Amino acid sequence: MKKALKELENKISSFDEQNLKSHEGFNSFAGNCTVVLSAGGEGSRFKNIIGDLNVNKCSFALPNNETMIERIIKMYKNLGFNNFVVLVYHQADSIVNLLGDGSKYKVKITYGFDPDKPVGRGGAIKNALVNGIINKNNYLIVHNPDDQVVGDTQAILTSVINKHLYSEEKGGIATAVVVKGSNYEFSGMQVEKDLVVSMEMYPFIPIPCHIGITVFSPAIYKYFDELFDLEKKCDFEAVLFPVLAKEKKLYACNIPIESWISVNNEKGLKKLIQNL
Questions:
Q1: Angle separating helix axes 236-246 and 120-130, nearest 10 degrees
Q2: Model-level pTM?
Q3: What's the fold here for domain 26-180+211-275?
C-alpha cells in the first residue's frame, strides 16, 4: 500500500522546494492587501462544544481567553497587515461585539453581512464587492479562521506571499495554500479480489489539499463579478478554482502539515489547545 501511495504522490504532485529570495514587491504587499476572514458559517460540527452560548465558533473563547479569529488577526498584524474585512452571518453579533472596528488590535475592520440567506464564501465575497467593502485595487487574502496556522507563522506567511508574487510573474492570479496530504480517518486496506493483502491504520493520503487560505491578485475580481451571483450558496473553490486551473492561473504553495490545524470539531480544538 505504501508503495502504491508513493507512486500516487509522484504522479499528482510536485513542488518547487527552493527557498525563494524576498520578492521586490514583498515590502509593499501588506499595505496593498485586504485580508478577508470568512466567519459566517454555522459550524454544525462545533455545536456540541459551543452549546447554548449563542456565539459563532470563531468567537468562542479558548482557554487562554483568546479566540480563533483574534489569533488570525494578530498573526497578520505582526507582519504589517492592517486592513481586514470580516464576512459574517451566523451569530454575527458575537463577532462584531468581540472585534469592534479593530482599533484595540490597531487595525481597521469592516464587516460584510450576508443577505437574508447564507450565500457561501463565494457569494459573501461577491456581496462585499457589490457593496464596495473590498477595494478592487488591492491584493486579497481569504482566510477561514478555523484553519489555524501554528509554529513560525511569520515565516510561513512570508513564504506564501513571496510564492504568490513569483507565481504572478508566470501568469498566476491565485495561490492556494496547501499541505501535501492528509491522514485518512479510517483503517486503510489494499484489497485484491476481496482478499485484504495489506492494511494500515490512518494512512497518509498524498493528495495535496487546500487548507482554507488563498492569495489573489487584483485580476481576480472580474471572475467574482462573472461567476457568482447572490441567489446561490456556493464556496468559491468549487466554482472558481476549476476555471483558474483550466486557464493555468492557479498556483499552489505548500506549508508543513504540522503548521496547520483544522478546528472543525472537538478533536481539532483539542489539538489547537495543546499547541497554545
A1: 80
A2: 0.93
A3: Spore Coat Polysaccharide Biosynthesis Protein SpsA; Chain A (3.90.550)
